[in-house]
Write a structure and sequence with these properties.
- 37% of the residues lie in helices and 25% in strands.
- It has a six-stranded mixed sheet, sandwiched between helices. The chain has a four-stranded antiparallel sheet with strand order 2-1-4-5, with helices on one face.
- Strand 1 and strand 2 form a beta hairpin.
- The mean pLDDT is 88.
- The chain is α/β, with parallel strands linked by helices and 250 residues long.
- The protein contains nine helices and ten strands.
- The chain has two domains: 164 residues, P-loop containing nucleotide triphosphate hydrolases (Rossmann fold, 3-Layer(aba) Sandwich), CATH 3.40.50; 76 residues, no CATH class.
Length: 250
């Protein structure tokens, strides 16, 4: 498979703390890649560097072979990289439909200041409902985002990311705070997005049952460095990973 995302010697420090330390990462197109490690390992910082939310100190990021190092967020979005966050990042006072409509309108170049409201433009409507259907939120389209359960709010955030029509999605702890039922639904949704929509997924997660059940490959971060990479069965029994993070064979 072709490499869709690659980092070379990627480094980021905050004062004397080197949060990301010369990371070399290669992600194949169409895979589900887990990035795991203890709190403070550098997972979210890595996502912030890839998505353009933090400047890189040194190193390089390649997307489909093109250098996107230190590009602004909006340009990285246009390349096809979307992300979600640990803390749900939605517009709480807007409806579910309106939350998804905003990135759709931005992407297709329609203005909210037209005489015809954006939500009445057929192309906008069609694309918003397509995203909502893929994520299972069609019946809740006109509810305010605050009326959703925590699990549905996390799925709405994923819908917002999907509305940008990405080819790569970075999901930062997509099941954090969810009930077991919501967690199971979200895991199935991640599989669906990868398989049916042909989107490469890179995600962070502390639930090892999820990590080992859906990942094609796993990268393990510790103190800003990748200490192991491989298929789930290889990582499960890796002595260095057990010592640094897992503590025991899950």
């Amino acid at each position: 498979m072709a490499i869709i995302l690659e980092t070379k010697q990627l480094t980021k420090s905050f004062g004397e703390l080197r949060a990301v330390d010369q990371i070399n990462l290669s992600v194949e197109e169409g895979e589900i890649r887990a990035i795991i490690g203890p709190n403070g390992a550098g997972k979210t910082t890595l996502f912030n560097l890839i998505s353009g939310r933090l400047p890189i100190d040194s190193g390089q990021i390649l997307f489909r072979g093109k250098d996107i190092t230190n590009l602004p967020v909006h340009k990285i979005l246009r390349y096809g990289i979307s992300r979600s966050f640990q803390i749900t990042n939605i517009f709480p006072k807007l409806t579910v439909f309106e939350n998804v409509m905003i990135p759709v309108v931005s992407r297709i170049g329609k203005s909210l200041n037209f005489i015809t409201p954006a939500k009445k433009i057929p192309k906008v409507n069609e694309e918003v409902y397509k995203v909502l259907e893929s994520i299972g939120l069609t019946e809740k389209a006109y509810l305010p985002a605050t009326a959703l359960s925590h699990g549905d709010q996390k799925r709405l955030e994923m819908a917002i990311a999907l509305a940008n029509q990405p080819t790569l999605m970075l999901l930062d702890e997509p099941t954090a705070g969810m009930s077991p039922e919501d967690t199971a639904q979200t895991v199935e949704l991640i599989k669906k997005v990868c398989q049916e929509l042909a989107i490469t997924i890179v995600f962070t997660e502390h639930d090892m049952e999820i990590v080992f059940s859906i990942s094609d490959r796993i990268s393990v971060l510790h103190q800003g460095r990748i200490i192991a990479e491989g298929k789930p069965q290889d990582i499960r029994y890796n002595e260095r990973v057990i010592e640094a993070y897992l503590g025991e064979v899950p």
